[in-house]
Amino acid sequence: MDKLPVYTQPGRVERLVHKNGLARVLILCSVTVVVWLWSASRYTVSVAKESVRLPFHAEETLQKCGMLHVQPGPPPDFARRTQSDRFVDGTPATLLKNASVWTGGPLQYEIHGADIMLDKGIIKFLGPSEDILANYGDFLTVDVGGSWVTPGIVDMHSHLGVDSVPELSGAGDTNSYKGPILPWLRSLDGLNTHDDAYRLSVSGGVTTANVLPGSANAIGGQAFVIKLRPTEERSPSSMLLEPPYTINDTRVDPALPPRWRQMKHACGENPSLVYGNTRMDTFWAFREAYDTARKIKEGQDAYCAKALASEWDGLGNFPEELQWEALVDVLRGRVKVHTHCYEAVDLDDFVRLTNEFKFPLAAFHHAHETYLVPGTLKQAYNNTPAAALFATNARYKREAYRGSEFAPRILAENGIDVVMKSDHPVLNSRYLLYEAQQAYFYGLDADLALSAVTSTPAKVLGLDHRIGFIREGYDADIVIWDSHPLALGATPKQVWIDGIAQIENPYVSEKPITFQTLPTTPDFEEQAKAAIKYQGLPPLTPSRAKADTVVFTNSLYERASLHVLDHGVFALHLSTHWIKNFDSFDLQGGSISPGLVSYGSPLGLEEIQGEMSTHDGVVLDPLTSNIPDLLVGNEVMLAVDGLQFAGRDTLLAYHGGVTSAITPPTSNGLVAGLSTAFSTGAAHALEEGAVIQEIAALHVNIHRGSGSPSVSSQIAALRHLLLEAASGTPFDRVAKGEIPLVVQAQNADIIASLIKLKKEVEASKGVELKLTVAGAAEAHLLAKNLGEANIGVIVTPSRPFPEAWEMTRILPGPPLTKDSAITTLLAHGVKVGIGILEQWSARNTRFDAAWAALESNGQISKSETLALASTNLEELLGVKPTVSLSGDLVATVGGSLLDLEAKVVGIISPRRHSVEWL
Ligand SMILES: *[C@@H]1O[C@H](CO)[C@@H](O)[C@H](O)[C@H]1NC(C)=O
Ligand SMILES: *[C@@H]1O[C@H](CO)[C@@H](O)[C@H](O)[C@H]1NC(C)=O
């Protein structure tokens, strides 16, 4: 990710941007054809008249010269194709009957009751089918039954195949570290065809991805667009979508306009950090490189002016350099430049660069501050770049600190193209549509939200003549969804790429009927304005209710593991008929739910992931460090001593109904220390109710990995710590069953060893050990054993991703498997909680919980869903029931806390004796 490689995720340096306008693309197509005809005819005349004086390379050179100014695009007759160049012989024609089609717009976004014929790799027709079918041979029929159908999802910023999972040192091909300027490198040359993520991303509806080099360099190299389906050839080349002809041929076919190329650039922190540069150094590197390319381009233009005028005397060879040809093509406007760029300073620098060297920019990626400077984007050379964004992933480094969930809507209001992207594997691209759902939730227009992952990226990539839309003649890349695509948790029922169905025996989870229509979303007008007014740092401090008593009317009261009461009146302490002074708040059918709990990230211990000066720091590990004498005997640290309050992610979590967090000290080693439970709404540690429980549980990590002692050493050390603990120490308290031991472990074999160790310690001590496994990517394989051993599990993250070798055996859930890890564990009586990895996502806990229920096919009730992210977590992490029962409550309008329709408006906190408005 854009997080820098240095200490967070070695080898993963990423997060990127992009743009373009439809009208302009159409204009370019017509100009293309005219110029090309002119060049070709001129070339023919020259050869004929001057043949005697021509050098031996004249024909090839004149062809090159003739093509020099031709703009890329499909051949003129492309729209009349009857078969895709990617068609696989033997693929049956398929008729999708009775679809609710979202087409990709812009003239008509929705067509209901439509039939779609997929044949020869393209969409043969769209609409009522009776007349046409009479002439058709064999075809398969799929009754879509009115389900929503969209174009395949297009991910404009991915590292699929170059930053592969499981992450292995032999397969890290994202970044070269050979210098800041590398336009000659190509992601294609590192494309791993065995990445586990292809299948997973297809199961989320992703059909096309732009595979970009990383952001360690100012110019990281050329990107390639791929389709994600497996091919018969099994080669990287066979996955490519319209690659430039030059990938395997130096000759130019004068009958064809060139195809669009893609290139990665990056400004800001990543290239700076990697090369020990400043922003000034990086931009000089850009300017020096573009100056080199400009000189070559001007040399070529001067050369061709003479060659085309048959002035061959003393002309020599055509001036070109293989290293620089791609950057020269950028200056010819034939490359879609994608620039990873965050802050106003970087955006402004880059816009000046485009004007100094006169090249178009396709998109700014990551682009966290684009919403603050739309005017700057509009000053870019030739066209306004698009902004390719995350929905809520922000604040992970300084340049992302002012990122806003309202950026998509603000940019759209300013007429700038918005693309939502994954930066896979930074975000698992399987859930790219979720980014569009969140952008919609925070106010982006529904059609633009869906376009942001389909037709808009297709247009920005220069591929909107064949992907991103459901239109006759377009590639047969189609997704049938189990709900409206903007309803939370929308999951494919089936995915076609090039007309080939991708999921064998898909499992479909029944969604509530209300999920078949576009959800309504809350009003965030004021918050969006504040984001601009305060330049991305709007005040988040809640305001306290002034009255002693607040009465909420028209609410649905919900409490996990207690009972859901009927619609009615709920007062914090008292009924209202005899109180005089109270505030009343109409929840308009909203609800009051338990406050959610966050676990798994360093929330409360660090503010900006990439800035060590904002961190509590990493604890010393007794297994691998020299513990200073001062700490000997007190090696187990207390997170409560390092807590930081009122961080932005912490307060945003509070605004999202996450009213407390349980966080252990940060550790890379075996013993992390004692976690603490704290209020996410408190201003400082000494405020009433700020620290909910000083000590929650004892946390250790057991994992495989380079630099770690062996798993057997880690288990042996843990055994020793538990069996030989001095009386009164944290490990002794664990061994006596007083506080839980929480082991962060992913791998089923490691978890099996832990199950055995628990029995061993219990046999020795004669008390039941409270053991919780967190992470737990492969825990579902041992669900029965975990249930029998009474071991709880915190699934972190709640939707699995096989990031490392020790977590490859995930249970992916629908549509690939009927069960999810969560439903499997619950079915075996395991107490389950859900966690997160990074603190920015704490605010999304309500949606993570809802998602787990939505894919359970009705197996997880509403109160069980709330418990996954509240009472179960408290129990698994050692927060006492008395504390838990006096827990916070969250008031929402528009729906319940689990609904995309709902907005959190107030927090009721008995332990802080407060009602706060958000
Ligand atoms: C299309 O599906 C809808 C929803 O299931 C159904 O009501 C309608 O009758 C179907 N139409 C046809 C022509 O089958
Ligand atoms: C070059 O690559 C393209 C795209 O993969 C392919 O269609 C074409 O057959 C290749 N040409 C040669 C000469 O290998």
UniProtKB/TrEMBL annotation:
<feature type="domain" description="Amidohydrolase-related">
    <location>
        <begin position="387"/>
        <end position="499"/>
    </location>
</feature>
<dbReference type="Pfam" id="PF01979">
    <property type="entry name" value="Amidohydro_1"/>
</dbReference>
<dbReference type="InterPro" id="IPR011059">
    <property type="entry name" value="Metal-dep_hydrolase_composite"/>
</dbReference>
<dbReference type="GO" id="GO:0004038">
    <property type="term" value="F:allantoinase activity"/>
</dbReference>
<dbReference type="GO" id="GO:0005737">
    <property type="term" value="C:cytoplasm"/>
</dbReference>
<feature type="transmembrane region" description="Helical">
    <location>
        <begin position="21"/>
        <end position="39"/>
    </location>
</feature>
<dbReference type="InterPro" id="IPR032466">
    <property type="entry name" value="Metal_Hydrolase"/>
</dbReference>
<dbReference type="InterPro" id="IPR006680">
    <property type="entry name" value="Amidohydro-rel"/>
</dbReference>
<keyword id="KW-0812">Transmembrane</keyword>
<keyword id="KW-0472">Membrane</keyword>
<dbReference type="GO" id="GO:0006145">
    <property type="term" value="P:purine nucleobase catabolic process"/>
</dbReference>
<dbReference type="InterPro" id="IPR050138">
    <property type="entry name" value="DHOase/Allantoinase_Hydrolase"/>
</dbReference>
<keyword id="KW-1133">Transmembrane helix</keyword>
<protein>
    <submittedName>
        <fullName>Carbohydrate esterase family 9 protein</fullName>
    </submittedName>
</protein>
